[in-house]
Amino acid sequence: MNAQTYSVASNPAQTENGTLRVLFAGESQTPPKHALGPKIYDYYLMHAIESGQGVFRTETDVYHLGPGDCFLIHPGQLVSYVSDEGNPWRYRWVAFDGELAGEQAKAAGFSPEHPVLHVTLDSQVPHYIAMIQSRFNSRRESAHMAAIGCLHLILADCLDHVERPAQLTMAEPQIQRTVKQMINYMTSQYAHPVSIEQMCASLGYNRAYLSRIFKKETGMTPVAYLLKLRIDQSKRLLRERPELSVEQVSASVGLTDPLYFSRQFKRFFGQSPTSYRQKIAGRSSSPDK
Fold it and tell me: Which UniProt keywords apply (predicted)?
């Protein structure tokens, strides 16, 4: 049987409770029948089990947990947990709080009603918790920021590695999520000379399929949507940034050919970029009646 171990490191930064804060992290090879609770905590406390067996209890459910399991204790939740007598847990833990803590935990798949996730054994959650503990032990000023970064990686890893049954067909909500991903991609990348092919490759689907579901959901092809997005953004720049030339505005929205940009702008708004800007300038300089 492995020898009992226990170590913990607290956040060296004296930070106020903001949007997200990591409080401490630790690890333990628990002794047989090591028990805590029933008790409540006023912060979120995640455990990632590396080996061994044990039982985690909430007010409504009992979970028999082993390697690859993670359980998240929510603030105010009455819980208890105990290691197995013959094969006790080895686990790592991380505590966190903040205004966004609940939202982040829920996004990763945890809730008070479902506080347990089973991740695949190649999950990096224990590694990231160890990194937080190491950073806190270093006492560096950067430890607080590094810990928040690791916490985001932990929650992202939980979401990525949750074991779900394979889907033979894509459900409607998943189609909608994929279209939202496409829109988010184009909204964040429109200023660059990005292509629809690049977007499809980054999302892992072929162009024909994505074009079909995108048009079904939005009524537009991805090419048309991206062009409209760029022209709409150019209209805002022409209005808000009068010091920029038409060529600079065109480049700022990812259209490297000013003549093509001018033609498309006129197609959308019935006037050239220069005429639009002059009309806006005329309105702003007119005296109040």
Answer: DNA-binding, Transcription, Transcription regulation
Whether the CB-CB separation of 10 and 24 falls below 8 Å is answered with yes
Which CATH number belongs to the domain containing residue 114 in this structure?
A: 2.60.120.280
Average pLDDT along the chain: 88
| Cβ within 8 Å of residue 171, ≥6 positions away | none
Domain extent, residue 180, equals: 167-284
Separation of alpha carbons 22 and 11, rounded Å: 7
Q: How many domains does the chain have?
A: 2
Q: Is pLDDT above 70 for 118?
A: yes
> For 178, what's the count of Cα atoms within 13 Å in the CB-facing half-sphere?
25
The total number of residues written for the chain in this structure: 289
pLDDT of 169 reads 44
Closest by CA position to 122, among listed 161, 71, 166, 164: 161
More confident residue, 278 or 1: 278
CB 272 within 8 A of CB 265: yes
Shared domain check, 67 and 25: yes
**Are 133 and 12 contacting, i.e. CB atoms less than 8 angstroms apart?**
no
Q: With a cut of 50, say whether residue 192 has pLDDT above it.
A: yes
Interval 97-123 mean pLDDT = 87
At 275, list the tokens: 């005429």
Q: How confident is the model over 195-225, as pLDDT tens digits?
A: 888 888 888 888 888 999 999 999 999 999 9
pLDDT of residue 174: 78
H or E element in which residue 26 lies: strand 21-29
Alpha helices, DSSP H, located in 74-161: 101-107, 125-138, 143-161
pLDDT of the residue at 285: 55
Mean pLDDT of 98-125: 87
Domain final residue pick, 161, 190, 224: 161
Residues 6 or more apart in contact with residue 142 via CB below 8 angstroms: 135
